[in-house]
Amino acid sequence: MSSRETILTRVRAATRDTAGTPAPPVPRDYLRVHGDRSPAESADLLAENLADYRARVHRTDDDGLPELLMRLFAERGTNTLLVPAGLPPRWLAAVDATRVHDRAASTPYDLDAVDSVLTGCALAVAETGTIVLDAGPGQGRRRITLIPDHHVCVVRVPEQVVDSLPQAMERLDPARPLTWISGPSATSDIELDRVEGVHGPRTLEVVLATG
């Protein structure tokens, strides 16, 4: 008998008497949100926590968004910009960079050669400083935000900001490919030397755009 078969046999024996028994209810008496905040306070908390994760946070209104994006990509020296389907054309109105479309045929090497990627998001969590993407319009495939070195993500305030993870889970579809982003990609070795850009973008810039 293989090790796998041995383990499965023991699991079946341990659960034989519970077959068909409904799972016990899971208590959900935890706090759904920590504190009572106005939409503006939630946006401030989100910005604070994003900055703690070393994301670069920018704030603007809807009218100023195209000019801000133009400035961010110009300062970065972006020549090629990966653009997912469904991104509002107005966001790119002032950006001077060659558009690269999100294609299924693109290889990791193709994506690695792109200077920057611009996306929207599904929502953002204020208490954790987390951006969530679900491959919806303006977000593209998961890999386009994992391979390029520079990611700019636009969060619409207040409609895409929630306070807590329980609130986020209520609004997300678990069947969609969810990507949870808390700051730029980073890891540390045994000596706690931080290295960024290991399995995701080295630089994450988040634009909080008030409608």
UniProtKB/TrEMBL annotation:
Family annotation (SUPFAM superfamilies): NagB/RpiA/CoA transferase-like (SSF100950)
LUD domain segment(s): 47-208
Protein source organism: Streptomyces synnematoformans
Any single Pfam family the record assigns to this protein: LUD_dom
Entries under InterPro entries matching the protein: FTHF_cligase-like_sf, LUD_dom, NagB/RpiA_transferase-like
Protein known as: LUD domain-containing protein
Highest taxon, organism lineage: Bacteria
Region (Disordered) residue spans: 1-26
